[in-house]
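Hello, quick one for you while I still have it in my head. A protein chain has come my way and I'm curious about its shape. Can you walk me through what the tokens say about the fold? No rush at all, and the record is pasted right below.
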Amino acid sequence: MHDKIKADRRRQIPAVNKVLEALDHVDLPRPVIVAVVRRELAALRESDQLVTFEDVFDHVMRALDRHLHSRLQPVVNGTGVILHTNFGRAPLSGAARESLAQIATSYSNLEFDLVSGQRGTRANYLETNLSILCEAEAATVVNNCAAALVLIATHFVANKSEVVISRGELVQIGGGFRIGEILEASGARLREVGATNKTTLADYSRALGKDAAMILRVHRSNFFMEGFVDSPSLRDLAAMSRKKRVPFVVDLGSGLVEPLELLGDEITPAAALRDGADLVCFSGDKLFGGPQAGIIIGRKKLVRALKQHPLFRALRCDKLTLVALQATVDLHLRESTSEIPALALIKIDKDELRGRAANIITRVRGLPAQINVGRGVVKSGGGTSPRAVIPSVTIDIAPEDFSPNEFASRLRAQTPPVVGYIAQGAFKLDLRTIFPEQDDIVVDAIRAACTA
């Protein structure tokens, strides 16, 4: 009897073609819609649910909607985190976007020498300009900072196995990845020195035996320690590395080119080289403001060796990354950092933010919600400047008829999605991380979410 009931219920589930006829309006490729419909119908057939066509249609639409929302798309960032890892970190400058459009839609001289008419060297212009910007003998680029670290470690541990690193610098980066595990994947053997909170120059010195391949200093850019803490200066470590004839590598992570008072004590790549590092690696996005990339600068002999390593071919950047980074480097060299969005957002004056907030409040007056100007604190984010606190201005919204969580959900369903955060019983949108040209989008989204 049970098998008969189950068979009857299965027969009630509509055919694939019937469901597809009702989905002509869905903005997804037809093969994707077909695959989702078949998957969801198969799952329903395995259940004991009694379903109508409307039930099936709603079930499939929810699955398609989830898939549609997972598509990479623009988001309005009202979270108060400038380099939001989940939102793709640094937005690109107008110059980078224009360069991308030109190179992406045409042929280019990626590996062609326009002077000689022969095969050329990839990224020669970019590497030269990076060297000038960072006051380095040489520079090169791979696809992210973790890749830069893997390439460097792989090169140095080919003959000697140990990477000497302080226990206080075995950091965990985004996505659960850990510096120690990344190094071990390159074949390195970690030689941990010191304690979590305190490492001395003598700790490093004792660890530099015949198997020491390099000393690695990792800048604690995504957390800070205070109290009973200490570690040697870069200058002292560099002097010891030269004396012991062991390469000294500094992983800076964030890539801030010029010091910013609001961001505290972020070390610049040029400063790390001046203090004696043989190689420095840092991010091409984050506080540098370009696309995701791992930039390596330092001694010419070492950079040349890295570029000749077989692994470099697997880690090198494509033309789109190179041209976007090229445009960003040139903005730094021209001292036009106000055109680099991540840096421009940090520097916006609070009076400008207050003016925008007042304008938005005026435009959304009369909606069924309490909407006020509030105060916020912005973080640079992206594993940079953990102690930096940047004052900001927020739009605070407390809907009358539903919860802040429901309001947040409604804003995420807009096109483009608008994302903020909930604090002190209200939904908040931080204007420092919302571009001025997006204010109209924010107003329309608030209206739609309040009246849906």
In short: Residues 1-5 have pLDDT under 50 and may be disordered. The two ends are 47 Å apart (CA to CA). Residues 205 and 240 are 8 Å apart (CA to CA). Residues 30-46 form the longest helix (17 residues).
